[in-house]
Design brief:
There is one protein chain. This protein is an alpha+beta fold. The protein folds into two domains: 166 residues, 3-Layer(aba) Sandwich (Rossmann fold); 100 residues, Beta Barrel (Elongation Factor Tu (Ef-tu), domain 3). The chain has seven helices and 15 strands. α2 runs parallel beside α5 and α3 runs parallel beside α4.
Amino acid sequence: MLKHDAEVCKDVERRPVIALLTDFGYHDGYVGTMKGVIASIAPHALLIDITHGVKPQSITGASLILWGSYRYFPHGTIFCVVVDPTVGTERYPIVVHTKHYTFVGPNNGVMSWAFDEDGVKIAIKITNRHFMIQPVSQTFHGRDIFAPVAAYIACGVKLTEFGDEIPEHELERLPKLSARRIGDRLVAEVVHIDWFGNAITSLHMLEFKQWLADVAPKAWKARVRGVEFDRLSNAYGDVPVGKPLIIFNSYGLLEIAVNCGNAANELGIKMGDEIVIEPM
């Protein structure tokens, strides 16, 4: 949460915030339908779209966007996340309340980086059909379960009304967002490719600094898809237009980019590709 707003805006009445993140795109009516459901139940809520442009079925991509975004929202925000390739199967819907936020979505790991970082307080398996649109579609839980539950939370319904509490170990989680150490090498994975074609990896700046402190290389090199780098850039413009670079981005994660270009297309980088950093 932004640190400076509490005093400046202390007398402003706050509306409950519901933030939406899906892979539904902008072509069809799915997002608008979810908003209609929410507005019918909680017309006072402020709806914010994080994005609906997540690559279809990309749980990892959605998880990264949520993790990189959630902490900039006001405390109390309800995040409604629908990237749900196994909708209608045995995977079940959940509500997770953390120290500062509430997350509503499928139990498939898509929210795990965010709720683990903020600290899980209670997790609920959503079973109470009273808070669902009937009949529940097996293909659109965003409309029939997640949107109404988020709206009812914004209306003050207690989380335990939605179903039974589940132990934290039953929450599905993605592998931790971090690099691996193999000997003196750091190995990170491309976890997201953004709109600009920048390839975002799982290596955080703090991990890289710790590796430098531990290994103390006189020099180092990074290699991905046959392209080598021997330095970090501080800005995209540090290299000529059309040239590749590596940089720690606004998430604090290592990113492979091309100045005014598309690294994924021009370097052939794909999700899951590895970047290896090692002493020279």
